[in-house]
Amino acid sequence: MQDLTQKVPEVRKTLESMFFKFSDEITASLTSILTRENFILIGPPGTAKTMLVASISKLLKAKWFYRLLTKFTEIEEIIGPIDVVELLKGNVKRIYTNSIVEADFALLDEVFNASSAILNTMLTILNERVIYDGGNIIPVKTWTVFGATNRIPDEEELQALYDRFPLRVFTKYANPEETADLIKAGLRLRREFDTLKPIMTMDEVKKLNELIQNYIYENMDTLVKHISPIVASYLDHVVISNRTRVKVPLYVVSYLTVVGIKPSEIDTATIRAGTLKVLKYLVKDREDLSEYESFLATHMPGNLSVLYDLLSEIKALIANNALSIAKEKLKEAYELFEKAVSDPVMYRFFQVEIEEVRSTLDMLKSQV
Q1: pLDDT at residue 78 tops 80
Q2: Sign of CA dihedral 17, 7, 49, 355
Q3: Do the Cβ atoms of 13 and 59 come closer than 8 Å?
Q4: 1 pLDDT band (50/70/90 cuts)?
Q5: The pTM is what?
Q6: Which is more confidently placed, 341 or 45?
Q7: Is residue 49 a part of any domain in this protein?
């Protein structure tokens, strides 16, 4: 297991070196692959969603299937056409080659725009990894189904399909001031994509999935002890189905593997940190995402939660022109910040949050 776990962080680092500010998308995608879970990217077109799945497929030596879905898309475009030669003989058979049936990964773009026939077929693929074709039950080899959409469906008939994508990330356009860095990264991405070589194989992915599941069963009591209280508290903010809650330990251990935590390194601190990070991928909509950010601010380990409260207090003091008191509180905040940065677990998991705190501290310092 050790050798395999070392390869996954290499895949993640390779992808992060290629894509501009795509850490959540990359980490969640790889977590979904290790868990054999369906995953959806929600956001506007032109945010590199397709390129991400194509790059992962290259790095994992995986066969992938892509289709942009509209209400005019035919079912044959997804599961394959009828074999005309066999039809002339009186036999109704399909050619599954180059369809979703034979792919390791599938990316269905604008998945909620499909016809009812395709949506019904997709449900059985997402749920059971089979299709019902005439009187035959056809196994679907697809390991992970990726969805992409620019909207969360309001229609009741689409909720069942959306629920079958339990891991979710919201993508967005880069900010205007990031345009130069985005262009440079995009130009590099085009060149690097053509030269990508596999780091892992799908056989290794499947083996690692099996090993992770065995680890979870062997360490079930410890994992549940530290994960369940966090999830239970989170449920006051965000609704998570029973089906998804049961899988949270699998998500957490897979996430830890993706970020480079070996089984021998998993302890209370990493389990709690991994759980807090994974909960971001279980939100339903952007309102839930705001709830998650609030939850994270009050549940981060060590000094970070205290720091968030202290920053709010300093902002209030500055707003009320109590600058001398604000200056003393700011000194206290910097001391707490240095302790947070020196904690290796804290920095490893919450580097983005730490950098945000650093930026806020420097901004407040300039005001006092």
Answers
A1: yes
A2: negative
A3: no
A4: low
A5: 0.89
A6: 45
A7: yes
Pair (175, 305) in one structural domain? no
Tokens of 15: 């992808």
CA distances 29 to 11, 60, 310, Å, are 11, 12, 35
Residues pairing with 130 in the sheet: 139
99-124 confidence digits (pLDDT tens): 999 999 999 999 999 998 899 899 99
Average pLDDT on 199-226 reads 96
Buried b (16+ CB within 10 A) or exposed e, 67-80: bebeeebebeebbb
- Residue 46 in tokens: 């032109």
Longest CA–CA separation in the chain, Å: 90
2 pLDDT band, cuts 50/70/90, is low
Please identify, among 194, 219, 244, the residue that sits at the C-terminal boundary of a domain: 194
- Range of lowest pLDDT (212-226, 240-254, 291-305): 291-305
Are 304 and 189 in a shared domain? no
Residues 170 and 316 in one domain: no
177 and 311 co-located in one domain: no
Are residue 35 and residue 166 in the same domain, yes or no? yes
Amino acid at 212: I
According to DSSP, the β-strands at 167-170 and 39-42 are parallel
Instruction: Tell me how many domains the chain contains.
Output: 2
Q: Which domain range does residue 314 map to?
A: 300-367
- Within-domain flag for 260: no
